[in-house]
Specification:
globular, Spore Coat Polysaccharide Biosynthesis Protein SpsA, Chain A, six-stranded mixed β-sheet, about 270 residues, two-stranded antiparallel sheet, 8 helices
């Protein structure tokens, strides 16, 4: 029997109803708290704040933790998966989990973004998804390793991304084979594609950047340079309807000192 005209929208509604978002930050400030509060208020589904001071996913990803230590992969230079994978899997009952880093923003109501992006049923949804053939200059390729049967490598840019629970569990299982190594922004899309999962770009209608540039600049969703004000603080300086990254709110000196102390304390535990 042919699908009814409503079947697509029923699927979209079902996906939206089974989603949640994890907001990841390693800094504490009133500005970041207000940024999260807006996201939580507008997104249309459950939102959770996850604060971290260092990567500690050894219990779930022991092989990955060993690799990070041996190869000196910092949590903010390719090893962030040791933080966000446990955080995303901790929230049961959701088929799809979004990750939004504290320095990512949307110029407009967050629900507008999530409604549009949630039309996709992909297992892995992120920005700037390119094959190695189309992004040979990406400086993390030399450290990337995959099983010999993997013929096509992919990379992505992931300050905002969505994973299905199937994708997250597949990622954990794959890393435990110790056959995959390198930057998580290559590991995630390549593993997903190799395992036959659905991989999609969020779509150029929701962000802009320059993939051939090492900093992805110019564009709205780039690596550098950074903005210092969120959309809700300075809406006139944003072009409505696009994702933005990075927004690095300048913290008061006392707050920066406190964050450094907290980080040092946790690193000593």
């Amino acid at each position: 029997m042919a699908d009814s005209p409503w079947s697509f929208w029923v699927a979209v509604i079902n996906i939206a109803a089974m989603q949640a978002v994890v907001f990841l930050t390693h800094l504490r400030s009133g500005r970041i708290s207000r940024h999260f509060a807006r996201l939580k208020r507008e997104c249309g589904f459950d939102a959770f704040l996850f604060f971290h001071s260092k990567g500690d996913g050894a219990a779930l990803l022991p092989s990955r933790a060993v690799e990070a230590k041996e190869r000196k992969i910092a949590y903010d230079d390719g090893g962030t998966d040791l933080i966000f994978i446990p955080a995303m899997l901790a929230h049961e009952g959701y088929e799809h989990i979004w990750l939004v880093e504290y320095d990512a923003d949307f110029a407009g109501n967050w629900k507008t973004f999530f409604d549009k992006a949630s039309e996709s049923e992909a297992d892995f949804l992120a920005t700037t998804i390119l094959s190695k053939e189309d992004s040979e200059g990406w400086h993390h390729w030399p450290r990337f390793e995959a099983p010999p049967e993997v013929k096509t490598y992919y990379r992505a840019f992931c300050p905002v991304m969505r994973c299905s629970r199937t994708m997250l569990e597949c990622y954990v299982q794959s890393l435990q084979t110790e056959r995959w190594r390198g930057h998580y922004e290559a590991l995630m899309p390549t593993i997903a594609a190799h395992k036959g999962l659905r991989v999609e770009d969020i779509g150029r209608g929701l962000y802009t950047n320059t993939p051939d540039d090492p900093l992805l600049s110019p564009g709205t969703f780039i690596f550098r340079p950074a903005r210092d004000r969120y959309f809700h603080e300075s809406p006139a300086s944003f072009e409505t309807g696009f994702l933005y990254h990075p927004v690095k709110p300048r913290l008061p000196l006392a707050r920066r000192a406190l964050n450094r102390c907290v980080s040092y304390y946790n690193d000593c535990l």
